[in-house]
Specification:
By secondary structure, this protein is an alpha+beta fold. It folds into 2 domains: about 5-80 and about 150-280; about 280-410, no CATH class. The protein is about 40% helix and about 25% strand. The strands form 6 sheets. It has a 6-stranded mixed beta sheet with strand order 1-2-3-6-9-10, sandwiched between helices. A 4-stranded mixed beta sheet has the order 8-7-16-11. The longest helix has 24 residues, at about 125-150. The protein starts with a helix and ends with a helix. The mean pLDDT is about 90. GO terms for molecular function: cysteine-type endopeptidase activity. One of its GO terms (biological process) is proteolysis. InterPro entries: Pept_C14_p10.
């Protein structure tokens, strides 16, 4: 008998597969063809074995072979932690564990708690309103704290561990497929990567200029593609389907389907947008947080407008940043990168604060110089001016840019 955890996992796998299949309506060319393969005839197996799904595709043309396609799904989470082995199990290496399922469980529990309190008209009685609203705000605050604390390299580390784990199992997938393949059938493998990433006030620069990423939007990153290409052997894997998700919103995931090997070349051939990640946390080790973190967050008071039916609150928290000189080193390096990529019209992403700082100091700079003894530190050479006046101008420009682009995150 399957456990509830196994049933939940299978449901998530099937949900991702259905999203990928549905996405073929918006695709064309080879991408559409790959996604159509996922919708092939479902092959029944008496015992659930790896890979997660098996599809049989009839010969596309007379004289060609049919395909038995094994589809292996795995989820990659940005919101993850590094779990170290217990003292009694020192031989074991540390592993990466997602915290997203814990947050999802709390979200479901909160929903069920207050959904059970609705009256016959589907309305929450007045006496429960304030407590229910507080529960929802607390849940949002916890999620926000996790998002702000998750750096970009944590996402890459989570992806790398999952890729390496599943690549090791490919011989098992192939052997299981050979057991059920029909004579003359070609065996192929597809990896369905369900990637959940959470970014806070992310901006992007490309041929269309500077724009704010919508809440829950996950761009296609060069580092993610490079990692997939480095780990996956195209002689063992035929297709890579990437579903870019966010647990912050219910927006439809963006789906990309590629043949394994030279994926970035396929991206450019299709004229898709791919971005380099340049935000400050790029320099931080996985699971070490960001240049700043929040703690002791609270939402109060909770105010209800009976006419508009809107609920509002005041959010407060303690914000701490890394040591000042180190912060400035990273901020300058990030600004130097941003301005260089813009000058060469190369697509990239960074946070709103990163963009604002880079654009605020740019008019004050005549050149950049490398810091002696460092492999990455840079320093701006400022125009001759009063330092207090310069700081005031930089601060004004930063605030103006933040106001200009903040509305884009809605």
């Amino acid at each position: 008998m399957s456990s509830s955890h196994e049933n939940d996992q299978k449901s998530q796998e099937l949900h991702c597969l259905q999203i990928a299949i549905e996405a073929k309506k918006q695709q064309k060319g080879e991408s559409r063809k790959i996604l159509e393969f996922l919708a092939g005839e479902d092959v029944y197996r008496a015992h659930e074995e790896r890979p997660d799904f098996v599809r049989r595709i009839s010969p596309q043309k007379e004289g060609t072979k049919g395909v038995l396609l094994g589809i292996e799904h795995f989820r990659v989470d940005h919101l993850a932690i590094k779990k170290h082995p217990k003292k009694s199990k020192k031989a074991q290496s540390s592993r990466i564990a997602s915290v997203a399922p814990v947050l999802d469980k709390k979200k479901r529990a909160t929903y069920e708690k207050w959904n059970n309190c609705l009256d016959e008209s589907g309305i929450l009685p007045e006496e429960f309103f304030e407590e229910a609203a507080q529960d929802l705000f607390d849940l949002a605050g916890e999620h926000m704290q996790k998002v702000i604390g998750a750096n970009y390299r944590s996402l890459l580390a989570s992806l790398q561990q999952n890729l390496e784990t599943h690549v090791k199992s490919i011989p098992t997938y192939q052997e299981n497929l050979r057991k059920i393949a029909q004579p003359g059938e070609k065996i192929q493998i597809a990896l369905l990567i369900d990637l959940y990433a959470e970014f806070f006030s992310l901006m992007k620069f490309d041929s269309r200029g500077i724009r704010a990423c919508k809440i829950g939007e996950v761009p296609l990153f060069q580092e993610v593609i490079a990692l997939i290409e480095r780990i996956i052997d195209k002689s063992a894997v035929d297709y890579v389907i990437l579903c870019l998700n966010s647990s912050i919103t219910e927006r439809t995931p963006k789906v990309y389907a590629f043949r394994a090997g030279e994926i970035e070349r396929q991206i450019h051939k299709r004229h898709l947008k791919i971005y380099k990640y340049l935000a400050m946390d790029l320099l931080f080790e996985p699971f070490s947080g960001r240049p700043y973190e929040i703690a002791k967050y609270s939402f109060s008071p909770v105010i209800r407008n009976d006419q508009s039916k809107e609920v509002s609150t005041m959010y407060s928290c303690d914000v701490s940043a890394i040591e000042g000189e180190t912060f400035l080193d990273i901020a300058y390096y990030t600004a130097w990168n941003i301005l260089g990529y813009e000058a060469h019209k190369r697509s990239f992403c960074a946070s709103l604060s990163d963009f604002a700082f880079a654009h605020a100091i740019a008019p004050e700079i005549i050149a950049w110089e490398k810091v002696s003894g460092s492999t990455w530190k840079v320093r701006p050479i400022f125009k001759v001016s009063n330092s207090n006046d310069r700081r005031a101008r930089i601060s004004e420009r930063m605030e103006a840019m933040k106001k200009e682009y903040e509305k884009g995150f809605e």
